[in-house]
Amino acid sequence: MKQSVALSHASRLVNHGPTVLITTAHEGRRNVMAAAWSMPVEFTPPRLAVVIDKKTLTREMAVASGRFAVNIPGRALADLTFAVGSVSGREVDKFEHFRIASFEGAMPGLPLIDGCSAWLECRLIREPHSEDAYDTCFCEVTAAWADDRIFVNGRWSFREDNVDLHSLHHLGAGNFACADQVVQARNVAA
Fold it and tell me: Which residues lie in coiled coils (predicted)?
């Protein structure tokens, strides 16, 4: 049976990508927010599209500094991911409030969150004609790392021994699905 889906929920039908944590830093201040909408848009150089609401502190800091990081949390960070997505950085320093451990990558001062499965440092691609109109930001990945317990030979490796690192996929209202089952397709073209 098929059912009609409200257009306000239509994006949920195609948004199964990993929920990410966007970290920013500017003028001695840092922030983190959860984002459910991110995707690769180009291979070389690697570029991403990430939806960061133009009214958020994270967006302001990313535009001001020209950089941000995309942290990919796993199951072990589900509570933290939901929490940082539910509180504004204008009200509280989320790193202090939630006791978030972080480290620096290649970009000095830009926090990367401990315990994530992967990290991508990004340079914001300026889109002056759309910065005030759209929430979507485009960026170029300038450095990337992944935990070798879950990313092996250039691929995700979801196994029983690394479930805490399995990516989160936001379903709404604080609910997440995890990539717990891998299905190997048969080559039917042969």
Answer: none
**Structure confidence at residue 72 (pLDDT):** 94
Half-sphere exposure of 88 (CA within 13 A, CB side): 8
Q: Is the dihedral of CA 126, 88, 145, 25 positive or negative?
A: positive
Please identify every stretch of the chain with a pLDDT value under 50, giving residue numbers as ranges.
Answer: none
Q: 95: closest CA among 69, 75, 121?
A: 69
| Strand partners of residue 42 | 47
**Strand partners for 49:** 39, 138
pTM of the model: 0.91
Q: How far is residue 152's CA from residue 133's CA, in Å, rounded to a whole number? A: 39
In the chain, domain spans: 7-177
What is the maximal distance between C-alpha atoms in the chain?
Answer: 58
Please determine, looking at this structure, whether the domain spanning 7-177 carries the CATH number 3.60.15.30. Answer: no
Residues 6+ apart with CB under 8 A from 78: 168, 176
Query: Which residue's entry shows tokens 């948004």?
Result: 15
Q: For residues 52 and 62, is the Cβ–Cβ distance under 8 A?
A: yes
